[in-house]
Amino acid sequence: GAVVSQHPSRVICKSGTSVKIECRSLDFQATTMFWYRQFPKQSLMLMATSNEGSKATYEQGVEKDKFLINHASLTLSTLTVTSAHPEDSSFYICSAKWSGRGLAGGTSTDTQYFGPGTRLTVL
Amino acid sequence: GESVGLHLPTLSVQEGDNSIINCAYSNSASDYFIWYKQESGKGPQFIIDIRSNMDKRQGQRVTVLLNKTVKHLSLQIAATQPGDSAVYFCAENVGTYKYIFGTGTRLKVLA
Lengths: 123, 111
Prior knowledge:
A: mainly beta, 7-stranded mixed β-sheet, B: 4-stranded antiparallel β-sheet, disordered N terminus
């Protein structure tokens, strides 16, 4: 249980284009999802908290107009990197927190379950 | 901003030996702690968690110890196997369900 998927797993795009990354909780409902980015040999840095049915909360220094987040349902959040540039190249990882109801979920509503990540390369 | 070229601390352990990975956390108000394992090119995988009202929790081959006095967390892996080779991160729940991740430790298991 508590499986999170991401799509695509890898994407290469040209500078100036937009890229959408999907995060799905497959066997549980998640009212809250999180988006992280990770540079090589570094830890995960939280970008934003995505709440179903409301606006995302962005961490300090993260441009909300550049990283658009939509949490349209209890099992899906999307991150769109708009007008991507080479410095946006990174490993993007989402996580989901079990809402405590609905589909079979984790044992704790505090635990975040992570997706497999999306490698974004901007040329 | 991010630093470029950081090297993760590395722990090298002989196969079959026990591993101890340490983590210092920052917020004395954190009430929930988690250890994750991350293999190359993959997302973090949940290993074990512990709440602040406990000082020890055991799982299958893993034990987490929490010392709130010095804000220290450790992960012990018994009989380390080649499949345990990965980067291990601790995370603390700082409220509003936000996690702060530690810098990570690379575990290398030597055959």
